[in-house]
Amino acid sequence: MKNTFYILLWSFTVLMVIRTNAYSSNNKSNLLSDNQIDHLKNTMDVIRFIQSLDKKFISGNLGTLTIKSDIQIINELNQCELYQKWGIKNWTKIDLNNDHHSDLLVTAFWYSNYHQYAVLYTKTKGYEIKLLTSNIKDKCKIVKPIITNNKNELLIHTYKTDAKTIQNDEFITYTDTLIYKFNEFIEKNTNPIKNDKIKSVIYTFDKAFEIILNNNGTVQYTCFDPIVSKELELPYSSKSLNKNTEANKFEDIESLVNYINI
User: Fold this and answer.
1) Integer-rounded Cα radius of gyration of the chain
2) How far apart are alpha carbons 235 and 11 in whole angstroms?
C-alpha cells in the first residue's frame, strides 16, 4: 500500500508546484455529454476507440494494440489458470468509479504482452486510460470486477514486491480488493486512521528535488539536479521556491495518508 501512497503523493505534490503540458492519456478533447462507450458494439469498436484516445497504441516501435477473443486469451494465458477461473472477459462495460457513467475494463495485447486497462469517463475530464495490470502471462497479475454493498470494486490477484521478499528471491501471491479513490485504483482499507496533527508532507525524488507541502497551504520546492529537472520538465532552482496552493489540497493528502495508514 505504501507504493500506492508514493505514486499518489507524486501526483498531488508535483501538480501543485508547476503547470505542465506533459503527456497524459486523459483525452480532454472528448468533453462530451454523450458517452461514446455506450455506443461500442463489438471488439473492433473498442480497439478503434482506445486507439483514438492514445495514438501510441496504433503504431511505432511498440506495435499496435489489439484485443483478442476470449478463447485466444485463455489459450495464450494457459499458465494463468485463474484468468479463466475468474471468468474475465476481453472487454466489459462497467461503471468502475461508481459515478453512474459507463467505463471499460479491457484485456489487451500490446508490446508483446497482455495488460488490463480501465478506460474511465467523466463529464468534466473526458476519457482517461489507466493501466491496471501487466505481465499477466508471467506473473498472473489480474483483476476482475466484483460488487460490494452495491458498489463496483476490483478483485486483484497480485504478488509481493517488498524489499524482503525480493531479497529472498521469493514469489508470493495474494488477493486484495481495489477501489477507485483519490482519482486512482488503490487497495481498499476498511479501517482508515484519523490523524489531524500532520504539519507537513515531504516528498524527495532520488536526491534530485524536494517538495514540502505545509498544512497552511504553502509549498516549498527545491531542485538539486538541473539534468533531472530538464528530463522531468520541472523548473530548476538552486534556491527554494515558495508557492501558495489551495488549503484543501493539503486536506486531500492528509486524507490519503490517513486512509493508507502511513
Assistant:
1) 20
2) 16
pTM equals 0.72
| Four-residue CA torsion sign, 56, 88, 152, 186 | negative
**CA dihedral sign, ordered 234, 237, 238, 242:** negative
Kindly give the confidence (pLDDT) of every residue in the chain, 262 residues in length, as a single tens digit, with 9 standing for 90 and above: 545 444 455 555 554 444 333 334 445 444 556 899 999 999 999 999 999 999 999 876 668 999 999 999 999 999 999 999 999 999 999 999 999 999 999 999 998 899 999 999 998 889 999 999 987 988 999 999 999 999 999 999 999 988 899 899 999 999 999 999 888 898 888 877 666 677 777 777 766 778 787 777 777 777 777 676 666 666 656 445 555 655 566 666 667 666 666 5
- Render the burial of 7-34: b for 16+ CB within 10 Å, e for the rest: ebbeebbbebbeeeeeeebbbeeeeeee
